Amino acid sequence: xxxxxxxxxxxxxxxxxxxxxxxxxxxxxxxxxxxxxxxxxxxxxxxxxxxxxxxxxxxxxxxxxxxxxxxxxxxxxxxxxxxxxxxxxxxxxxxxxxxxxxxxxxxxxxxxxxxxx
Length: 117
Fold this sequence. Notes:
- The chain folds into 2 domains: about 1-60; about 65-115, no CATH class.
- Helix content is about 45%, strand content about 15%.
- The strands form 2 sheets. The protein has a 3-stranded antiparallel sheet, with no helix packed on it. It has a two-stranded antiparallel ribbon with strand order 2-3.
- Helix 1 runs antiparallel to helix 2 (about 35-60).
- With about 120 residues, the protein is an alpha+beta fold.
């Protein structure tokens, strides 16, 4: 990730957090009698969304979209074929996200890598 991309990603996270902060404080003003559990029910999905964004940024930090030529299968050493850049849905305790990374397939082992390496 270049310095410009890194600063842009950082700014996006800061803006997302500021939006969340504003939304939650506005909600709290409208619900002064809310219980702790009710407050947590408002915080949790927003926190998960922000953590999902951060996880995508970190997972894709070293992926620049370059197709790797002559990638060898880690199982058998045979050449793998590039099969595109599908988006993969990932559900994690810290958030639900979609990651688009290169996918490679080994015809010999009939297995794939997502992401390679």
